[in-house]
Amino acid sequence: MGAGTGQRALDGATRHHDTRKVLAGVVVFLRLVAVPPIVVAIASGVRLGSYAVPWLAVLVYLLFTAWGTVFVLVVWRAGKVPGWVVATDVAVVTACILLISLAVHPVYFNQVDGSDLEAAMEVSAVVVAMNTGIRKLIAACLVLGAAHVVAEIPTMIAYAGDIGATITDILWLAGTALISALISSRLLAADDRAEAANREVSELHAQAAEARARSQERVRYLREQIRRYRALHDGPLSILTAIASGGLDHHDEEVRRQCAVSANLLRGLISDDPMSTLTDLSIALTKAGSDYAVHGLRVHYQFSDLPPDLPPSVVEAMSWASREALNNIALHAGTDRAWLTARADGGENGHAVTVTIVDQGKGFDPAHTRHGRGLSDSITGRMADVGGAAAVDSMLGQGTRVELRWQR
Predict the structure, then answer these.
(1) Which of 397, 362, 403 is nearest to 380 (CA)?
(2) Which residues contact 327 (CB under 8 A, 6 or more apart)?
(3) How far apart are CA 202 and CA 189, in angstroms?
(4) Which run of H or of E encompasses 17?
(5) pLDDT for 337-360, tens place per residue?
(6) CB half-sphere exposure, 355, CA atoms < 13 A
(7) Are 306 and 279 in contact (CB under 8 A)?
(8) Collapsed DSSP state (helix, strand, coil) of residue 330
(9) pLDDT at res. 8
């Protein structure tokens, strides 16, 4: 899976997480909205003298406030409502509903709206609805509804008309819980569908990228085969065909020299690196080396990771500079072997291509040897013309090393 695919999967997970955060924000908002009615009810209860056990009422309101503070902080920081918070909220609200009924006179519930913690009860049901399954929601509604009915019993006995209000409260509790559950489930289900569709699109993108890679590999392979065919056709195949047809005598000295050139070319086309491929530069360097087979110079080649899209001017400069280095070996080094390597490595601005020609011949002392025009013009000059560089290192009796370097 590529980076783009991983990012799309991450975006899907982020959207799902954002939906949870939105639902958590709604719950926090509802919890805060439920506070003003309770404050008004407390003030009304104090004005009407409705508290039978004032210390118990104070304890209930302190408990409710403390838990509400913890609830808001935990949910706000977590961006969701943890399971233990859901269970604790139902337990605390249920306890507060039952305890407040013991701390007030029955008239309190009848005269003051919100005095029975109805808003807190409904918010607690919403918390359960948005964060659990239907079974836990039903259980929570039964617990909260039962606590509300038990708390209202003294008031219903004293004021028969309060029975209808209590039934209405239970219906509101059930309706609020049901609607909240439907809304949250629809939102999360839509997120799940969107995430599934996103994964499917990501898989299609990955398959398309894989198909493009296979197609590019096939094109690269065909181009390499064409280069290999041309190199073989123009050299070894031509000579072998002429010899086979009787047009050339293989005992002829010139034919033998041409066969040596072709053999050297074939060695260049066969790389020691199983991952290497033919490029314009590798073919040009191979041909440069094979031309010196007629002088009895055998060139060993090694190519690695050469880019296939080098500018023609760079290929030409490196091949001709290599020819000049090989010519110097054939004329002055006193050896019949040379090693030509070409490789590419990544640099800050792209591929850096290095061609190295090495021999183990007589060598020379650079400090006391005057460089001829071949070195300054054909090697150093050619590389400078294309923005490259050349370096020559030699020592008497230790051979010579010529390095050509060009960076994109």
Answers:
(1) 403
(2) 292, 374
(3) 20
(4) helix 3-33
(5) 999 999 988 655 557 899 999 999
(6) 30
(7) yes
(8) helix
(9) 44
Burial (CB count within 10 angstroms: exposed 0-12, middle 13-18, buried 19+), residue 117? buried
Of residues 16, 36, 34, the one with CA closest to residue 26:
34
Q: Measuring CA to CA, which residue among 143, 148, 144 is closest to residue 162?
A: 148
Adjacency order of strands within the sheet including 337-347: 298-304, 337-347, 350-359, 399-407, 389-395
The proportion of the chain whose per-residue pLDDT surpasses 70, expressed as a percent, equals 76
Task: Measure Cα distances from 121 to 107, 110, 116 in Å.
Answer: 20, 17, 9
How big is the chain, counted in residues?
408
pTM of the model: 0.49
Q: Which residues of 243-269 are buried (b: 16+ CB within 10 A; e: fewer)?
A: beeeebeeeeeebeebbbbbbbbebbb
C-alpha–C-alpha distance, residues 29 and 127, integer Å? 11
Contact 266, 283 (CB under 8 A): no
Low-confidence ranges of the chain (pLDDT < 70): 1-17, 160-162, 217, 220-278, 293-294, 346-350, 367-374
Bridge partner residues of 356 (DSSP): 341, 403
* Residue percentage of the chain with pLDDT more than 90: 16
Cα gap 265→283, rounded to integer Å: 9
| Enclosing H/E stretch for 230 | helix 162-234
List 338's β-bridge partners, or say none: 299
Q: Give residues with Cβ within 8 angstroms of 408, minimum separation 6.
A: 307, 347, 349, 350, 351, 352
Give yes or no for a contact between 378 and 324, defined as CB atoms under 8 angstroms apart: yes
